[in-house]
């Protein structure tokens, strides 16, 4: 019988692969900061970092990262079959699977996550722009730029909801419990 993969192995692999591809949690936190600063007075980078890190502990996003980045890496090495190789490597405009995979994991975080993802998909900011630019050269980040947008969007939504709860003085355990109930994975 095939053995299930322990979840800590999956989480570590997803976190490692982001780093390997040049994305630090602080880069994602910066996007979250830029997205939320106009709505939240006194927003701290620590809150943005904490929220980005928490999103990375969700299984659904870890799986999306592993699938997407694997395809980016294979395309970079010219190892996919044609025509998929060219579709991924050239980031063909009508190839939307990169966005679909990334979008799939923001739904659990509600409408703020979905609208933020739509915004980041159009206005590539921070590390998303860097990845997009590098992808036009020798590297391939067709999936990764959308995955980063997905993590940042989910983290923005999570943060917005938590800050409201904090404002209303809900106890930390209640906030954590509610999040666990609401989210998949
Ligand atoms: Ca893309």
CATH class: Mainly Alpha
Strand-residue proportion: under 5%
Cα Rg: 17 Å
Please trace the helix and strand order, writing H or E for each element: HHHHHHHHHH
Percent of residues in helices:
55-70%
- List the ions, cofactors and other small molecules found in this model: calcium ion
Organism: Thalassorhabdus alkalitolerans
Keywords: Hydrolase
Biased composition (Acidic residues): 176-185
Biased composition (Basic and acidic residues): 162-175
Explain this structure to me?
68% of the residues lie in helices and 0% in strands. The protein has one domain: YutG-like (Orthogonal Bundle). The protein is mainly α and 185 residues long. The protein has ten helices and no strands. The relative contact order is 0.17. The protein has helices at residues 7-20, 25-36, 45-55, 59-76, 84-89, 97-104, 111-122, 127-135, 144-167, 172-182. Bound molecules: calcium ion (CA).
